[in-house]
Amino acid sequence: MPNHRSGFVAIIGRPNVGKSTFMNRILGEKIAIMSPKAQTTRNKINGIYTTDDAQIVFVDTPGIHKPQNELDEYMDQAALSTLNQVDAVMFMVAADEQPGRGDKWIIEELKKVTKPVFLLVNKIDLVHPDELIPLIDQYSRMRDFDQVFPISATEGNNVDELLKSLTATLPEGPQYYPDDELTDHPEYFVVGELIREKILELSHDEVPHAVAVVVERMKDYAGGKLQIEANIFVERDGQKAIIIGKGGSMLKQIGIRARRDIENLLGEKVNLKLWVKVQKNWRDNNAYLRTLGYNKKDLR
Q: What pTM value is reported for the model?
């Protein structure tokens, strides 16, 4: 294919700046889960954007933050490990926030990157345009960015222009994935993330961060629906009680909301069964983290 461009692009930034919203906007499907709570994304999630003349594999990374446990350390390492493995990096910040220590630390890491680095100032729909120039100037004094784009991942402002510039930056290369493939993660992973998103929406305090979801099986069964069975792991009995809710009310709501998104994703009717189990202090248990797919050795 003449002049076809392709490559891998990392999306990096502090928690809750809109990385997952941006990727879902580009793909037109919910591949990365979204929540106003920090630490929503835990793994690197690849989203595949394909046009007639290009294919961009976006790597949505966990938000970088000060680690409190082994899971947090994995998340930071997952984000930083992408920087030297991609063809370009997009550093996303929020237009309604001033640069913080986390941003400055990320920029120091970005100074080591030799590939093109774009600054994306997201959430411009939340601020007056006059506020953007001073903010962009602050970031530009910390590092010389190849290109700067003020965008709104929610509203779509400037996203098409960004994609055109990004495509032009990438090297000529082959199409790695089929036209209709949106992510290289297995369905099990995406389904588990959609279930976890609903827990984030409906629960509060420490509960969302103490939750892991493992999809045990997805299979057809009599009745024409896809049978999905998943375990929700928490760290304490009290958290289990919250997730289940009075008379099972919370778990029922989680199931209803998750099933709706899963059916939209898979394009078929689903029967979703959820169980809640206690795995004490799983976020600090390296052996258990590996069983959940959070293996630091895979990031090297």
A: 0.63
